[in-house]
Design brief:
Helix 5 packs across helix 7. About 35% of the residues lie in helices and about 15% in strands. It has an eight-stranded mixed β-sheet, with helices on both faces. A two-stranded antiparallel sheet has the order 5-6. The longest helix is centred in the last third of the chain and has 18 residues. By secondary structure, the chain is α/β, with parallel strands linked by helices. The protein starts with 5 loop residues before the first helix and ends with a strand. The chain has ten helices and twelve strands.
């Protein structure tokens, strides 16, 4: 009889300990009702409902597969909006995971904007260094810091908090965008996914005369300095800024979104020392509707038995209000049809 290597046993034991001792239970898992419209529902035949595609495997091949399932075809110059991550400790999507989709499938350019705080990505020189050090220059057909030469203004239609949104001047240079987001918790928004990437992600940083990021964080009160505002106003501003980006891109026809649910920390990739995730990875989701996509991710978190920490983060910031407001202003639908891909 073969002996089982002690290292293998130790690895299994460590995995068991981490996922049973340190994970925070989610008592709501059994009773939580998702926004998925089931096949038995009277609304199941409603073709107007957005479809969210879901695959459990997290790999370069699965990332391509779930994107292809949307049926979306990019045209012209394509940008892929990702987070380059504040530090090597951050849980940003690793280049090895996204290369097949970004470079081989789409031949796209990775796009980013500077931050609105100090850190390693607040100016052009430091941000380009981070992008290079983290490997993003090697997995795309170019890297574009969109606010490197300033900002441009795009209108916010039907906004309650914002009238204008400020993005990098290079934003207008693209015909289509893939919004490739790492879904996780967030210290200010409760969670971050497609809507955060569309809003805060595209917004110009403090390196510009007008910072779209400060505009969103202050709910329109300031574009030059950090200014506080009520929490719900900030969340509403994120939804409105994200909608303005999609409106500019052919009323959303120039946008497709993918969320990767791995390394589900309570902290954002903008945190250089995020909390270690204490729940299991879930999978990859894709949709043409960013509201439905983020809602489906939230639903999967709430249905997980070990997601207590992340749910606590979402609820302590009233994160769900971003989706409530997004739907209210006609940005997208919180109800969706879920199609699982094997």
């Amino acid at each position: 009889m073969k002996k089982i290597p002690s290292l293998f046993i130790a690895t299994i034991l460590l995995f068991f300990i981490v996922n049973t001792v340190f994970a925070k239970d989610n008592p709501k898992a059994a009773s939580y009702k998702t926004h998925e419209v089931s096949t038995s529902s009277t609304n199941a035949s409603d073709k107007s409902l957005p479809v969210v595609y879901f695959i459990r495997d997290i790999s370069p091949e699965s990332l391509v597969k779930v994107y292809q399932a949307t049926g979306y075809k990019t045209s012209g110059k394509t940008g892929v909006k990702v987070s380059t991550g504040e530090s090597e400790n951050s849980n940003y999507l690793r280049p090895a995971l996204i290369k097949n989709l970004v470079k081989d499938e789409l031949n796209a350019t990775i796009v980013e904007c500077n931050t609105a705080y100090g850190g390693n990505r607040s100016n052009n020189i430091d941000h380009m260094k981070i992008a290079r050090d983290h490997g993003f220059l090697d997995v795309a057909n170019g890297f574009d810091l969109q606010d490197a030469e300033g900002y441009m203004t795009i209108p916010v239609k039907g906004g309650l908090r914002l009238k204008e949104n400020y993005v990098g001047t290079h934003f207008k240079d693209y015909d289509t965008y893939l919004i490739l987001s790492h879904f996780k918790g967030h210290a200010m928004g409760g969670f971050g996914g497609a809507i955060k990437n569309l809003s805060i992600g595209f917004a110009s940083g403090m390196s510009c005369k007008k910072s779209g990021k400060l505009n969103i964080h202050s709910a329109g009160r300031s574009v030059t300095r950090w200014t506080s505002c009520p929490q719900d106003e900030f969340l509403e501003s994120m939804a409105e800024a994200a909608k303005s980006v999609c409106d500019y891109m052919q009323d959303g026809k120039g946008i497709v979104c993918v969320n990767v649910m791995n390394r589900l920390s309570v902290d954002c990739d903008c945190d250089s020392n995020p909390a270690e995730p204490d729940m299991h990875d879930i999978g990859i989701l894709a949709s043409l509707d960013p509201v439905a996509l983020d809602q489906a991710c939230v639903d999967l978190v709430y249905k997980a038995k070990d997601s207590g920490s992340l749910i606590e983060r979402i609820e302590s910031r009233n994160g769900i209000h971003t989706l409530e407001h997004a739907e209210k202003i006609g940005f997208g639908s919180r109800n969706y049809r879920l199609v699982e891909i094997k």
